[in-house]
Design a protein that fits this description.
The structure is a homotetramer.
Chain A lengths: L3 E7 L15 H16 L13 E2 L2 E8 L8 E11 L3 E10 L6 E11 L1 E3 L5 E3 L4 H4 L7 H4 L1
Antiparallel strand pairs in A: 1-4, 2-7, 3-6, 4-5, 5-6, 7-8
């Protein structure tokens, strides 16, 4: 059972905008990096296209609170914590820490809620229970970590 | 005094991901499109670098609720509504409508809170009042539109 | 028979980088905007997933020469010209004109070569002739325009 | 004196498009990742804003030949090789190798030419010699590697 994962990324030139800081939309891409790493660490992929019906995990909610900017070449730790787990959805919390700051400091907090969906033959998607072999590997993080 | 703006964009191939739908992070770029159009419609830019000190409008909060996916070539209306106005910050709400659906339907709702900051000579940023000639042009949308 | 198309886009905040100009990789996304508009103008889409086998148009070559930078809010015309047409591939040339400059000026030239491929059941792709109803609508631009 | 650098990146979900492969424009962002790593390995940054006048390295040419697609979660090696060195410009070649293929295989080759420019007080840019302490660390790769 796992409830956390830490990914590290460096802010690239193409992640910045003309204000000289990481564009706010890229924090969401960084969250996804951590989510994908979390899934890989558990032995599965966020893409489950081989199943019948194929499953997917679209996002139904995403949010971010920005406290400090990230700049070019900053090394960033994205700390994923499982915040809520339901039969058909999971909410991940994310803490962004700028490891290039001295001392390292939290710069943002994010949130993503995914739902498990089955892709129907007619192209539509229907909410579906998260497969047991996946759900069984994921648990909610201890309350003190989520504070 | 203005409280709304409608921008229209078509979902590009590069906006999609392997799930065949618009990547969730791009909804935030689309919100910014509407914000920039709103500012231009009022005669100013989201970039106020010529001032002394230079002003900027970094985001402190961004969120999105996704109801339905957007697909390649869908024509999307992004309806900006001023949701809250304070001396140093503004919160914009966004309604995404897929105009390619029949009938057109709401597919997502978003939120962005910006703060006005002055760029200090030492590279830091400090919250600052929104200039009167800007603040004076913006008002909160009627409650019935925000419901 | 068509050999050209003009698309117009405005440089968005998220298109810029910390150098204050449009990131060089985004010129390729803008080229694709014009390509998609060209296809739509002829009554088909760059995505032909409904065929059997499904066809696609991956890129085998892309290039860009940058002469002048594009900046935030610049209005850009992307002029597509069909440069070469073979049975299984098409090469598009692109001229970028900054309409916000006075007078408007060419800022970049690009090139994209696409090949028609059939998606095989085993997941691989094989080059395939461009369908006659598409090829029949496209011709190479007059030499004087390509100079 | 250095003439090469190897960077490694994993293809993210947000790097893919609806064709299920990495979007062609992202190969250019990956090239930049390797370029930035190369500069850092030599002790400087692609951003030299602290100089007087501030220097920058805009791209004047970029190109890519695509042989095979990259897919989600593929691990990619981007091998930078210095291909040409002039007083005011450098051309980098890039080889993309898919390390997740068995055996690993080359999937694309790229090229970027940068010029050194000085940012003038009036906002324009003028070509300038690459500073000696940078130029002195970079040499052209052996011919057999560039073949």
């Amino acid at each position: 059972m796992a409830y956390e994962f830490k990914a590290t990324r460096r802010v690239e030139f193409s992640d910045t905008d003309m204000a000289g800081i990481m564009h706010f939309s890229n924090f969401f891409r960084f969250m996804e990096t951590a989510e994908q790493g979390f899934c890989r660490s558990l032995g599965f992929s966020v893409v489950l296209g081989q199943r019948d019906p194929p499953l997917g995990f679209p996002r139904v909610h995403a949010a971010c609170d920005y406290k400090k900017p990230l700049r070019f070449e900053d090394l960033v730790e994205i700390h994923l914590l499982v915040q809520e787990k339901k039969s058909k959805s999971i909410t991940y919390g994310f803490r962004f820490r700028n490891l290039s700051a001295s001392p390292p400091e939290e710069v943002a907090r994010g949130l993503i809620t995914i739902v498990c969906v089955a892709h129907q033959p007619d192209g539509t998607m229907a909410a579906a229970p998260i497969p047991a072999e996946i759900a069984g590997k994921i648990e909610v993080a201890p309350a003190e970590l989520l504070a």
